[in-house]
Amino acid sequence: MSETLEQLAQAVDYIESKTTIVPRVGVTLGSGLASFAEEVKVDCSIDFSEIPHFAPSKVKGHPGKLLVGELSGVPLAVLQGRIHFYEGHSMQQVIFPTRVLARWGVRHQIITNAAGGVDPKMSPGELMILRDQINLTGTNPLIGLNDEELGPRFPDMSEPFCKSSIESLKQIMQKNSVPHSTGVYCGVTGPSYETAAEVRYLHQIGGHAVGMSTVPEVIAARHMGVKVSGISCVTNLGTGLSDEVLDHADVQAVAKRVEADFRKVLVEFVSGL
Ligand code: HPA
Hints:
The chain is α/β, with parallel strands linked by helices. It has helices at residues 3-16, 91-104, 163-175, 196-204, 215-223, 248-271; strands spanning 25-29, 41-47, 65-71, 74-80, 108-117, 127-135, 180-187, 209-211, 227-237.
């Protein structure tokens, strides 16, 4: 068995020793969006630091916990917080939690994040349903020996985000009058925010929002055949599109403001899966 498979097996064994629930659905909660977890009837809560081979998340607003439970009868695993590449972790560490959930049995991963709008038509506070992504991290989490047991050497990326779920999310947001759009997420490494020239560039190449996560996780999930849905909370306009200076506290404050809408949408979406 490869080292990766062994590490995944150890993490899954540990989690399985704590709960009898086997989730079909996973949720990754981004910056400032962690309170969705309150909607879950929690069976067990495990700190990332306890799980074998999980790197601890150190970012404010990312507590770093795996919650296992049920929502409307759907068995669910929630990654409250995530591992970022900009923290100095390897791409393998960044995608490890996503891979663990997939090995455990998750077949649909809902990935959320806070992002900056690079399309001048966007407004802070709207939700963007991801319909595609552009990997601008300069690397790929699947570089290295490929484990055929996880997925193919050259995974297809023609449907990074599940098409039918995009339609369901749109309907849910419309019905609840939640300001939203669908768009293309550009994944960068950060941690510096973009310059005004970078924001113009990202829009010109077809992006609508930019953020420092998600892209590696989506690649890892698709590699393993897991369906993915993505939602960005657009917390700010990119540099040059507004007069504001960007600050992580402001990003979190806007995410908090949108959290109620976000929770409602996610509850309805998960309940329908
Ligand atoms: N850029 C990158 N990441 C972000 C932003 C942004 O403007 N806002 C929230 N996360």
